[in-house]
Design a protein that fits this description.
It is built from 24 helices and 2 strands. It is an all-alpha fold. The longest helix has 27 residues.
Length: 455
């Protein structure tokens, strides 16, 4: 009886998070509260934030919608059965289940706002890509002329999102239109369908670089991410998936897979850089993948060969990436970016990130930092936990670089979707999985039902 008593007393209570996890959650909550309170005051007195519900772009609008029952059902199912399914399903079955569930989660949250308001109208506003599709009837000519319409005072200047991205972004919707899939509905469906594959890419990379066990533990959190609130009908979800697959293919290449995976990775990373200027920062987690892989020397020539293809095609077509970026910086500071206070957004952006990745990820990042710090102190290396921590840390470093650049003031709940995907695997370090998953789901449901999020 004594032995049993001691054994039970010594067993860790996996239902209660350690004090460090709770401290991380408290700091994250206080950061969000401070961003709301301070942001509200700045907006009410100085009107310099240009957001209606700081730190998020959105308006207060408590509502239900046709997607509400499905969203609640998906959340309950993942919390109740997700961890067990992730542990027991065959690997390929898990990937298919993760994709299908992520797709259902994103679609149901988008449809809380209804089909038109939640999907169709997202990509047909005056700031978006679809309205300018008709200006690309001659694609080579449009590419040669692209930089002439970036500045605000230039003739027929591009809408904000077209001007703010390389032409690979708008060309996606031009090609969809040419294929007979024009309009906001098809554009939104494309972004959601492709964007949902991002969680699969992250699982593939985590398994290759760390371990299958950690990937399985991370899977429910990747599926049920609060980021799904902003992934619905957002082109940034599509960008996030392309960037994620570039890292996933590279992870396969440097861990014993075919060198052709490295070629594919280079092609996708090149495309990533022509979808969003800011995603060139994915070179940071890309470098981490190369560092963690033993086959990096074998893969590197194929990676470089793939990487030059997309830039070469656009350059030969007459588009100058560097000139376009220089003009974009000018336009950014001529508009709201030049008015929005850096001193607020440099930390309020991080509050947006908390809402994007959830409180569980905040705790997971502290755990990942602990694993990384412990390995440095002990001069240890190579364990699956440390390798995962390195990958997550690289994504966090890229996000912080974007934050400090001053080119990401506001709207980061959308812009940083690609980085958020790679922070979520930190949840694999957590215990008490179902409680953390429930916290993630509740956050997403509250944000989606209390606010009308916008771009």
């Amino acid at each position: 009886m004594r032995t049993r008593t001691r054994s039970r007393a010594a067993a860790p209570d996996r239902s209660r998070p350690p004090a460090g996890d709770l401290a991380a959650v408290l700091v994250a909550v206080l950061l969000v509260v401070a961003a709301v309170v301070v942001g509200r005051r700045i907006q009410d007195t100085r009107h310099t934030l240009f957001v209606d519900w700081p730190p998020l772009v959105g308006t207060w609008d408590p509502h239900l919608g046709p997607g509400t029952p499905a969203a609640v059902a998906v959340a309950v199912a993942v919390v109740a059965y997700g961890p067990r399914a992730a542990a027991r399903l065959p690997w390929r079955g898990l990937l298919l289940a993760a994709y299908g569930t992520a797709l259902a989660w994103i679609w149901s949250l988008a449809l809380v706002d209804g089909w038109r308001r939640g999907v169709v109208d997202r990509l047909i506003t005056r700031h978006e890509y679809v309205p300018v599709v008709g200006r690309f009837h001659d694609i080579p000519a449009a590419l040669r002329d692209f930089t002439h319409h970036i500045l605000v005072h230039s003739p027929d200047n591009w809408p904000a999102h077209v001007a703010g991205h390389p032409p690979g972004a708008v060309l996606t919707f031009v090609l969809l239109d040419r294929a007979g899939l024009g309009g906001g509905g098809w554009a939104g469906a494309w972004c959601i369908t492709v964007g949902a594959t991002g969680c699969v890419a992250v699982l593939v990379a985590v398994r290759a670089l760390a371990s299958e066990g950690l990937a399985r533990r991370a899977a429910p959190f990747l599926v049920l991410a609060p980021a799904a609130v902003w992934a619905g009908a957002s082109p940034d979800a599509y960008f996030a998936a392309v960037a994620a697959w570039s890292l996933a293919l590279l992870a396969l290449a440097v861990t014993g897979g075919s060198r052709w995976w490295a070629l594919g990775s280079g092609l996708l990373f090149g495309l990533t850089c022509y979808l969003s200027y800011g995603l060139t920062l994915f070179a940071v987690p890309g470098a981490a993948v190369l560092l963690l892989g033993r086959g990096r020397l074998r893969a590197l020539p194929f990676l470089v060969a793939g990487l030059v293809v997309v830039p070469a095609v656009f350059t030969l077509a007459g588009f100058d990436w560097w000139e376009a970026y220089r003009l974009l910086v000018r336009r950014y500071y001529e508009g709201a970016g030049g008015v929005r206070p850096y001193g607020y957004w440099v930390w309020a952006n991080l509050a947006c990130t908390v809402l994007l990745v959830g409180l569980a990820t905040a705790a997971g990042l502290v755990r990942a930092g602990g694993a990384l710090g412990g390995a440095v102190r002990a001069r240890g290396r190579g364990t699956p936990e440390v390798r995962l921590a390195v990958l997550v840390a690289a994504a966090a470093l890229a996000l912080l670089a974007a934050d400090l650049s001053g080119m990401s003031k506001a709207e980061t709940e959308r812009i940083w979707l690609p980085f958020a995907l790679w922070l979520l695997p930190a949840c694999a370090f957590l215990t008490g999985t179902r409680a953390w998953l429930a916290a993630q789901a509740v956050l997403a449901l509250l944000v989606n039902h209390l606010l009308l999020t916008g771009w």
